[in-house]
Amino acid sequence: MTIADPGTPTFLRAHNDRTALRLLLDHGPLSRSRLGELSGMSKPTASQMILRLERAGLIEKVGESAGGRGPNAVLYGVRRDVVTGVAISVLGDAISAVVVDALGTEHPVARIGIAGEERSPERDVDRAVAAACAAADIARETVSMIAVGVQAAVDAKRDQLSFTDTLPGWPATGAHALITGSTGLGVVLGNDVNLAAMAERAYGAAQDDPSFVYFWIGEGLGLGIDVDGVVQRGAGGGAGEIGYLPVSPAGLELVPDARDLTDLLGAKAIVALLGGAPGQELGDVLASVPLTAAHIDALADRIIVALTPVLALLDPAAIILGGPTGLAGGETLAARVQERIEAIDSARSSVRPASAHTDVRVSGTGTEPVLRGAGRLLVDHIRARLEDGILPA
């Protein structure tokens, strides 16, 4: 790539074109005159920027804007099909995947059942990318990067996975390298709950909090720990693997044979609490059993056992309840957990300042938070790749 000297006409043209592209990404379709207003450029200069971006294949005519006298103004928008990515969530028996583009368009989510299938990182990801592209009717050749959320602790530096109970066929070491080698794409491999926490920060119930903990309650348990907008992963990617913590005496009073917090709040424990049959799927039970006040109180009692050490160690501004069980309990469950936190604060006022306050809320990112978090990562990459199409740098 040719590097132009700052101040030269070539450099200024590229700078202006990048400015125009960013404005189109941020504001959506614009006319020449509106682009000129937003960029501070004259209408002729804005027209030249539009022409160059159109010739580069980065933008296209998307409609017309009526208003005022004279002919309708042509609107230009960024093309969605030039550079794309795929967000992937790998679960124990299923994979979800969705195409992501520079504009954050809502594409259909592809879901693939993999129970009993031969598994490997390459096979899982290949099927996911193919299914997502087919669902969105997007050419696979446009995909430049994928972001994969897995139920495991991810040590990106060493390319190692830990706590891989739900990833049969995935090696403890080298999964990232295998996926990169087989796809030839840029790959981000991350813990699913951390990605869900990123979605909560960007789109959900924790956008304005200085710090928060995202508590995933589903088949297993996990914490996504956000401090000042940065997810804390730990030295080896294992931060937040709370399901493996031993149960406290308070927890043993609730479930005497529980060994760890997963035995208290994981899928099997919640199915039993709600009266489901052994082996019944958590999602099926949550969908078929109305949660009574007694159920909600029992859930809140278990949740506060898990959160007590979190409150002591992290003192977060907010706790977000997510995962199937957290969403099923909804605002009522959040309120019950809030009451229990306030009771702890009252009992320990000499230890925890009276001004300290942790809000409990339900996740605001829907049923696919992992995909939304992975997609958030991809949008920034895709936009950077589009800018790379403007020469010279």
Question: Could you characterize what this model shows?
Answer:
The chain is of the alpha/beta class and about 400 residues long. The protein folds into 3 domains: about 10-80, Arc Repressor Mutant, subunit A; about 85-195 and about 370-390, Nucleotidyltransferase, domain 5 (2-Layer Sandwich), CATH 3.30.420.40; about 205-365, ATPase, nucleotide binding domain (Nucleotidyltransferase, domain 5, 2-Layer Sandwich), CATH 3.30.420.40. Helix content is about 45%, strand content about 20%. It contains 13 helices and 14 strands. It has helices at about 10-25, 30-40, 45-55, 120-135, 175-185, 190-205, 250-255, 260-265, 265-275, 280-290, 295-315, 325-345, 370-390; strands at about 60-65, 75-80, 85-90, 95-100, 110-115, 145-150, 155, 160, 185-190, 210-215, 220-225, 230, 320, 360. The protein has a 5-stranded mixed beta sheet with strand order 5-4-3-6-9, with helices on both faces. Strands 12-11-10-13-14 form a 5-stranded mixed beta sheet. Helix 1 (about 10-25) packs across helix 3, helix 2 packs across helix 3 and helix 6 (about 190-205) packs across helix 13. The radius of gyration is 24 Å and the shape is elongated. The model has no long low-confidence stretch (mean pLDDT about 90).
